[in-house]
Write a structure and sequence with these properties.
Layout: E1 2-5, E2 20-23, E3 26-32, H1 47-64, E4 72-79, H2 85-96, E5 102-107, E6 117-124
Helix pairs in contact: 1-2
């Protein structure tokens, strides 16, 4: 059985997609960009702050469905500039608290709302 996830702990979807879908113990999180869920606005144009907001948004979706960081099995990071990778990696490492799921990082030309980073995740209970 598939369940559509919607929470005010993360930004509302800005298109025809769901924040996340839960099926068979898996939680598939759509790509999160650095939108403040309270205002719907992009946070400052700073890679550290944008990364922190994306990770908070991921945490909000996990919390909504009682998943833990340690339930994350795979993430994909999309970034506009690979030179930002060291800062992103530092914030990501702090957020994951020693948990190291499989991960891909891809430099892209452009992201929604011209943000600097987007992260999608898959979690499993």
């Amino acid at each position: 059985m598939m369940k559509v996830i919607s929470t005010n702990k993360a930004p509302q979807a800005i298109g025809p997609y769901s924040q996340a879908i839960r099926v068979d113990g898996f939680l598939f999180l759509s790509g999160q960009i650095p939108l403040d869920p309270r205002t719907g606005s992009v946070v400052d144009n700073d890679i550290r702050l944008q990364t922190q907001q994306v990770l908070k948004n991921i945490q909000g979706i996990l919390d909504e469905e009682d998943y833990l960081l340690t339930n994350i099995v795979k993430t994909t990071i999309f970034i506009k500039d690979m030179n930002d990778f060291p800062v992103i990696n530092e914030e990501y490492s702090q957020f994951m608290q020693g948990h190291n799921p499989a991960r891909s990082t891809v430099e892209v030309n452009r992201l929604p709302k011209d943000v600097m980073i987007e992260i999608e995740a898959i979690a499993k209970k």
